[in-house]
Design a protein that fits this description.
Blueprint: H1 13-16, H2 22-36, E1 43-47, H3 53-60, E2 64-69, H4 72-84, E3 91-94, E4 106-111, H5 124-134, E5 136-147, H6 149-156, E6 160-167, E7 170-181, E8 186-196, E9 202-212, H7 216-225, E10 228-234, E11 248-255
Length: 258
């Protein structure tokens, strides 16, 4: 995994994902707590927490939160946001999502916004899931989402996208070109970010991301191999059944321990 890939996009990340309803996502997580746990957990891990949007949303609902991410730039933004929101108690750790270390177990783990798709090498998926399982309480819940094969084939493909937005008196511009290989099931994203400086000039930064397309069968097999019981797969945070053209799967699993 290339955590340095989030250097240029970190300042732009929340704008690209401005349409994400973290409140509805947190509602979904809490409803799963009610369905599958005898009582609400107190300590949660937000894995691949990025700029901390989900971490903060859950902290505001009274949970003790840990945020783990491999990008220093993203974590710096998360920590600044936590302090500004009067939640300096959140523990943020810069660690690899495949082999992180905590001080003990947690009641649930969230991993949002297709972070699992960034596990691109053979063995990455099982390594990450095994580490998550290790740090979950017995019967603790694991929530993650992935971009579906439909999205890789029909939305990403070899398409290009443009994002631009004003930030105060500055203009932020991001050009995004996709390259999806159906044989390797890897999608490369080449990004160019232009940030307007105060003198009217622009600063350019380039970076590349890669995601891997996983089938539901592969995800289910990796979960079972690492000690999880698959509880549900939804097409949205409204608990809907995934449709053929669903772009994201929301997956809930339980850590089984002897």
């Amino acid at each position: 995994m290339n955590y340095r890939a989030y250097h240029a996009i970190s300042a732009f990340y929340d704008r690209v994902n401005a349409d994400v309803d973290y409140g509805a996502w947190a509602d979904y997580i809490e409803e799963n707590f009610r369905r599958y746990l005898p009582q609400k957990p107190e300590l949660l891990l937000d894995l691949a927490c990025g700029t901390g949007s989900m971490t903060l949303t859950l902290a505001r609902r009274g949970y003790d939160m840990i945020g783990v991410d491999g990008s220093a730039e993203m974590l710096n933004i998360a920590m600044e946001r936590a302090r500004a929101a009067a939640h300096p108690e959140i523990l943020f750790l810069m660690q690899d999502m495949r082999e992180f270390e905590l001080y003990g177990t947690v009641g649930a783990v969230t991993c949002c916004l297709d972070s699992v798709n960034y596990l691109t090498e053979d063995g990455d998926l099982k390594e990450c899931f095994a580490t998550v399982h290790n740090y979950l309480d017995p019967d603790g819940l694991f929530f993650f989402d992935v971009n579906t094969p439909y999205k890789f084939e029909h939305i990403y493909g070899d398409n290009a996208y443009i994002f631009d937005e004003e930030d105060g008196d500055r203009l932020l511009y991001c050009g995004w070109q996709n390259f999806y290989d159906p044989e390797t099931r890897l999608c490369d994203f080449d990004l160019t970010v232009f940030t307007e400086d105060g003198d009217g000039s622009y600063r350019r930064e380039d970076e590349s991301h890669t995601e891997r397309c996983y089938t539901l069968e592969e995800l289910t097999a990796a979960l079972r191999a690492t000690g999880f019981e698959l509880l549900a797969v939804h097409g949205d945070t409204d608990f809907s059944t995934p449709a053929q053209d669903c772009e994201r799967w929301y997956i809930v699993a339980r850590a089984k321990k002897d």
